[in-house]
Amino acid sequence: MTLFAYKFPLNLVFRVFDIILVEGIESILRFAIALLKANHDKILGLDFDVLVEFLKDGLFEYYMNNASLFIQDAYNVKVTPRKLAQYAQKHQAMIQKQQADLAAEESLRETNKQLATQVQKLETSMSQLNKEHVDLAKELITRKVEMAELQDHNDVLTQKVSDLTKIVDSQAKEVEDKLKGEIEDVLRKNMEYLKKNEQLEDQLAYMESLLVETKMKYAESEIERDNLSRKLSDMRKALGMV
After folding, report:
1. pLDDT beyond 60 at 1
2. For 240, which DSSP code?
3. Structural domains in the chain (count)
4. How is 43-111 classified by DSSP, letter by letter?
5. pLDDT at 241
6. Which domain holds residue 37?
7. What is the pTM of this model?
8. CA-to-CA distance for 36 and 210, rounded, in angstroms?
9. Are 39 and 62 in contact (CB under 8 A)?
10. Are residues 11 and 131 in the same domain?
């Protein structure tokens, strides 16, 4: 009402007061609707920034030279309490729907955030598994090289034993006693290398089993990461982020 008094002559303001006192505060809605209808085309044609200024300063210009028309147009607006109740019900339903939509969107965002965190953790786990896989592969190569070196050394010792055996067989009895200790020493060393070679073979078999297990874990992680990536993509599509 202060706005009406500021924009219109006092006699018109008193008429508006009288209508509100007789018909109730709901009648002020008819005056508001009359203003909006009178400026309908102009309001729709304005940008937001210009519209704000228009609603503040130019909304009443249409009726400035014919204030009585304002009263007439307001009376022509048919707004019944039943209609107001329907509008209120629709407005409440719209608010509830918006709140439900916001809650659903927030839930989707939270789910999306959780999935993104899971994907990040999985990628970190996959990176660690990949590093372990590389380390095991390097260790396996090192063990194979050591085995090859031990095998070469074993072959040399075996050949030496064979050569010494031939010497013993071809030498006289006095040489046999002299070489016997050396042969026993060589045989002992050969047994030690054979034992070490057997241990390395056991280690190699263990490392190979670890490598197979790591590859299986890596493949399972790949499948889980793909599933989470698809879920994340679906969530982004549902949120309109794609």
Report:
1. no
2. T
3. 2
4. HHTS-HHHHHHIIIIITTGGGTT-HHHHHHHHHHS---HHHHHHHHHHHHHHHHHHHHHHHHHHHHHHH
5. 65
6. 2-79
7. 0.38
8. 78
9. yes
10. no
